[in-house]
């Protein structure tokens, strides 16, 4: 695929992310204190860096699982279909569950995933999203914990891609097209 040339301007530094992840983990640990096990569910692929850092800061017994949903398929308007490409390996009935998402944009992905998981009867179901773009929201939904609210910019890094590239940047950057 050919791509117009672009540069990436740093928006949130690796240091700022690390500090925020630590603070989020403290709040999540306090919220779930006493749990026999917290099932931390990463939504693939974008959350893989965030979940790796977050779970290492949680002072709780944790199980890690993954779910993959595709949100940016063909449809671009509000009755957008979200497909589950990979389901959880484990059961979540009666469990404490934390869904970890890299970014909430229109909210379709999160809304669909929560609907699906709620139907399985978890004891508690909460969400931690690193980034939130409230100005893009089409579904009335919010994460329980949000790392950073950001404007409607095209962001990459720390797990987030642009055409499958730039997920490995240690910071969050803003894509700026040159042409
Ligand atoms: C991105 C992102 C969220 C979703 C947010 O995933 O990781 O899951 O879109 O968008 P929404 O709020 O408008 O639904 P994407 O489908 O691009 O897959 P990826 O995580 O594999 O990059």
Automatic annotation (TrEMBL):
Major subcellular site: cytoplasm
Cofactor(s) the protein needs: Mg(2+)
Subcellular location: Cytoplasm
Enzyme Commission identifier(s): 2.4.2.8
SUPFAM superfamilies: PRTase-like
Keyword set, alphabetical order: Cytoplasm, Glycosyltransferase, Magnesium, Metal-binding, Nucleotide-binding, Purine salvage, Transferase
Taxonomy, superkingdom: Bacteria
Pathway: Purine metabolism; IMP biosynthesis via salvage pathway; IMP from hypoxanthine: step 1/1
Any one GO cellular component localisation term in the record: cytosol
Any Pfam family matching the protein: Pribosyltran
GO MF annotation terms: guanine phosphoribosyltransferase activity; hypoxanthine phosphoribosyltransferase activity; magnesium ion binding; nucleotide binding
Primary enzyme class: transferase
GO biological process annotation, one example: IMP salvage
Stored InterPro entries: HGPRT, Hxn_phspho_trans, PRTase-like, PRTase_dom
Residue intervals of the Phosphoribosyltransferase domain: 13-162
Known catalytic reactions: IMP + diphosphate = hypoxanthine + 5-phospho-alpha-D-ribose 1-diphosphate; GMP + diphosphate = guanine + 5-phospho-alpha-D-ribose 1-diphosphate
Entries under PANTHER family matching the protein: HYPOXANTHINE PHOSPHORIBOSYLTRANSFERASE, HYPOXANTHINE-GUANINE PHOSPHORIBOSYLTRANSFERASE
Family (UniProt): Belongs to the purine/pyrimidine phosphoribosyltransferase family.
Name this protein carries in UniProt: Hypoxanthine phosphoribosyltransferase
Taxonomy of the source species: Bacteria, Pseudomonadati, Pseudomonadota, Alphaproteobacteria, Rhodobacterales
